[in-house]
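Notes taken during the Thursday session

The instructor put the following on the board and asked us to keep it in front of us for the whole hour. The protein is Glycosyltransferase family 4 protein. We were told not to look anything up and to reason only from what is written here. First, the residues (389 in total):
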Amino acid sequence: MVKLVFAHDNKFKLDEKGNLYSGGAFNNEVFERYTKLCDELIVIGRVERIDSNQVRNLNLITSNKIKFVGMPNVNSIRGLFNIKFVQKEIENIVKECDGVIARTSTLGLMAAKAAKKFKKACLVEVVGCIWDALWNYSLKGKIIAPFMFFLYRRWILKSKFVIYVSNEFLQRRYPTKGYKLSCSDVVIPSLSEDIIEKRLRRIESMKDRPINLGIIGNLDIKYKGHETAFRALALLKNKGFDFRLLCLGGGSKQKLEYFAERLGIKEKVTFCGVVPSGEPVFDWLDNIDIFLIPSLQEGLPRALIEAMSRGCPAIGTRVGGIPELIDNNFVIKPKDFRGLAFKILELVNDKDLMKEQAIRNFEKSKDYVKELLDERREKFLNEFVTYSI
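Then, after some discussion, the predicted structure tokens were revealed:
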């Protein structure tokens, strides 16, 4: 019987009936990557108790191979008092397993530490840069960023198996001496040429309707760049085009609503809330004319690849893996709202350029089709499991 542990700081939800849910990236498809390799998968993550009437737009996790172990948040001042308890709990779990899959996070690092203690095989999934995440978070983050960067860099360098979601960026910052694979964790279904044909027709119809700009990201996360997008929209307001900014993502909209009101663009911004991953997100993207990703930090953003797979022209910042994905002519500096506004106008004033970018992004997204990534990832994970047992 093969038993694996998966550890990450993701906040999972448990209802009063014991049903497990998650928002965002985690769903049955993602966990199937691991459950097909083992008899039992113990998932370690943060936990939030919810009522069954709060599960709308969440992903229900249904695999009978998954056993979930919820941990308190250790990424806060109050959480510091729980570190020893959490580390001990994780050690008790890891010593009874065959191998650990540790996604870069505090719980992932703690699980990797336990794996080292008990001489268990460990695979690290590098999904983002801890330096960028902390540096763009707060003053406290800037203080601890150098220490955590060194800690993560040393951890990954010495890891036997490493999967990077980027092709270049994370590999440069966090090299490893072990076996490595470049493989995004995005889930893009097989792509039909009907998608790009529909996109090109949409571009042709732009003068007859409002132009929709789209951004995806939790509203509470400052590094997603909502403020940059809002400032760009304020500059565009008097340019003669009917722009709208559609914001998809959870979190409280209160601060951003107030910011939009101060800029005089409140009526131009729509907060769309959360939708389940998969088709609902793709349907939302089909209503977007230009996808914006003005982030201050990223790994290899899934949302951008999803937008590209729907033929969306895209503008993003020169951070993380974004320059690996989109045309360099549409990469701007972080916080450069004037540059963002200029690039938006450059696209909407030239339909041929929009079509060119749509086709280019659609073709590039084919590198991330699920079947191709699954085949590469499964081979690598099988090698890890074979090594574990």
